[in-house]
Amino acid sequence: MAETPIRFGILGCAEIARKLARAIALAPNAVVSAIGSRSVDKAKTFAADTGLPPSAKAYGSYEAVLDDPDVDAVYIPLPTSLHRRWVTAAAEKGKHVLLEKPVALSAADLEEIVAACEANGVQFMDATMWMHHPRTTGMRAFLSDGERFGQLKVIHSTFTFAGGPDFLTNNIRVKADLDSLGALGDVGWYCIRAILWATDYELPKTVLASREPVINESGVILSCGSTLYWQDGKVATFHCSFLTSVVQDLTALGTKASLRLHDFAVPFQENSALFHVTSQFSSPLVSEHNVINDLPQEALMVKEFACLVASIKGNGSKPDKKWPTLSMKTQLVLDAVKASIDRGFEPVEVLSPLFATT
Which listed residue, of 3, 68, 89, 296, carries a Cα 20 to 30 Å from 252's Cα? Predict the structure, then answer.
């Protein structure tokens, strides 16, 4: 018997929503049931342009999507300043939530978001797509192998792209009232998550923001970096920017080997992804590993999220707390970096998670 697909509503017609509409179509256990925009004409245009199924409804408001009984879950790609309002509204309507990153403007806002989801028994997951690629699983196994990799000592991550004049003037990610975290919240989110992933989500003790970040006249960060410190001596650095050509590098250095890749957030190839291992204790010195995936990483993300929702709907399972916990840890580090910048580049201690993880 064929699996009943999870029915998605999409709130907003942002460019990234086009990618997710395709991902939902590719996932074997999901379908777009509704698209909502501030105008019904815009919603209809989005539906036509993205090839949504004829059964998908086009609404002229986000509320209408949340009120639709044929919607099980929502994908929310709205500006970060709107996340708390619309996630809370979705959760109260019993809709499971796949939320675009950055998930919140602060850990305090995210705590409210997670509390609303928990109170209503709905699954929460942020849309950090590379987490769901099989390459990520393979690299995790290597980093956890003490015989081959040794002890993790240093991590470097970089995610940048050149936004261009129009982007730097008009994009929502440079508007203080829409996405005030700027590059730190956007590409910096990926850098911080990658660092935490490499440490198996062990929070650093302190962070120290790099001096001379680039900040626009509205106070939005266009380029910044930071160093993270752990009590056991691990160190990590990251740099994120809207001002330089595209780079998405990740390097993890261990006592016996290192791992390196140049496309950690968005693989250069949709159905395969490389990583390289360097070890002075093996031959050859450098080995290349190619991981094949049957679906793009964003479709794998949708598939995993839909499986969790189906288990809650069909089996009475509880929402998986792993995903909000990872979001909170990422947000806590992001908040500490922002605080270090605001305080004149002082070291800032990373707080403990604001809610229980079990």
Answer: 296
CATH number of the domain that residue 104 is part of = 3.40.50.720
Output the CA torsion sign for 143, 157, 84, 97. Answer: negative
Give the sign of the dihedral formed by CA 20, CA 175, CA 242, CA 165.
positive
Q: How far apart are CA 180 and CA 159, in angstroms?
A: 18
Q: Do 218 and 267 share a domain, yes or no? A: yes
Supply the pLDDT for residue 2: 55
In this prediction, residue 354 carries a pLDDT of 66
Q: How many CB atoms lie within 10 A of CB 269?
A: 12
Identify the CA nearest to 266 among candidates 248, 251, 280.
248
Question: Looking at the whole model, is its pTM more than 0.90?
Answer: yes
- Residue 269 and residue 281: Cα distance in Å, rounded? 30
* pLDDT at residue number 281: 84
Q: Tell me how many domains the chain contains.
A: 2
> Are residues 14 and 121 located together in one domain of the fold?
yes
What does the pLDDT read at residue 99? 98
How far, in Å, CA of 218 to CA of 200, rounded?
36
Active site members:
101
Residue 229's CATH number: 3.30.360.10
d(CA 86, CA 109): 12
Give per-10-residue mean pLDDT for the chain (358 aa).
85 96 98 97 96 96 98 98 98 98 97 98 98 98 96 98 97 97 98 98 98 98 98 98 98 98 97 96 90 97 98 96 98 98 97 62
**Do strands 57-59 and 235-241 pair parallel, antiparallel, or not at all (unpaired)?**
unpaired
Contact 77, 100 (CB under 8 A): yes
